[in-house]
Amino acid sequence: MKGEIKIDRERCKECHLCIHACKRGNIVPGKEYNAGGYRAVCFVQEGAGGSCTGCALCAIACPEAAIEVYRG
Ligand code: SF4
Ligand code: SF4
Questions:
Q1: 64 — phi, psi (to 5°)?
Q2: What is the dihedral angle through the alpha carbons of 48, 24, 58, 60, rounded to the nearest 10 degrees?
Q3: Which domains does the chain have, with CATH numbers?
Q4: Ligand 1 proximal residues by C-beta, below 6 Å
C-alpha cells in the first residue's frame, strides 16, 4: 500500500518521536522554524528504507496530533 502524510508544521514541537517511529525514513529533521520557534519535521516520499506505506505509526507517536495519514 502506498501512503502519504501531511504534517501541520505549526503544531510541530520538534520532538522527533515521529522520526524514530518511521522505520522507512520518510520523516526527516527540518531546517525552517515555525511561529513557535520549532524546526518542523518534513516528509519525504522515498525514505532511506523505502516509500511511505501509510502505516500511521508516526501519527500515533506524535503527541501534538500534527500528522495526518493518507492511503492510496
Ligand atoms: S505512515 Fe508509516 S511509513 Fe509513512 S511516514 Fe508515517 S511511519 Fe513512516
Ligand atoms: S512527533 Fe509530532 S511534534 Fe514531534 S517532531 Fe514529529 S510531527 Fe513534530
A1: -100, 5
A2: -170
A3: 3-71 (3.30.70.20)
A4: 3, 5, 21-22, 24, 26-27, 52-58, 69
